[in-house]
Amino acid sequence: MKHLLPPLPYAPSALEPHIDAHTLAVHHGQHHAAYVEALNLALETAPELLQGRPAHWLLLNLDQVPESIRDTVRNNAGGHLNHSTFWHSMSPGAGAEVNGALGNAIDQSFGSLAKFKTSFEEAGSKLFGSGWVWLVKSPDGDDTLRILTTTGHDNPITQGFYPLLVNDVWEHAYYLQHENRRAEYLEGWWSVANWKEAGRRLARAGHNGELPGKANGGELLVMSN
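^ that's the sequence the OP posted. Answer follows.
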């Protein structure tokens, strides 16, 4: 079973004016597609058992991937997984008030939504080079939330964390529109941040930090092929 490029959950122009249609089309149709293609190509030489595994399983079981393709699988499965989560971390007309369990968890973990946003933006701005900034649920069995950054295409699931929301700070995510103004991109991203999806992920995570497999109804919690 080959990995497939998932369709965008909205039209390429749907996130304008913050993310323009051209940037989104290139990001999804070229960058994400290239990770999927490279992952499938690498897995052609892998045992058949690995070829049917979703991207998050591959990242969590890299010791079972042949050493000759391990780095390639790690990089491209990560790129596939991270981008698939990123598309669902945004939504047209998003940026609404955060309430319920997610709002309470943010207040308890960061003091307020405003303080969380400031810390999230600072983390993304200070990340050297290419990577991602995440809101994650702690693996400690409660609703404690943390902000993490990862370089390249690393994913917090390999550290036991449960991703709720992610922003892409690779230059290809924003450079066509925001040029080198990463801080501007991060600050404006709240207008498209999908709080409803982040809340669903927190609810699905429950209180044991269990990683989901394939999600139903388009609710992509970590990844499905």
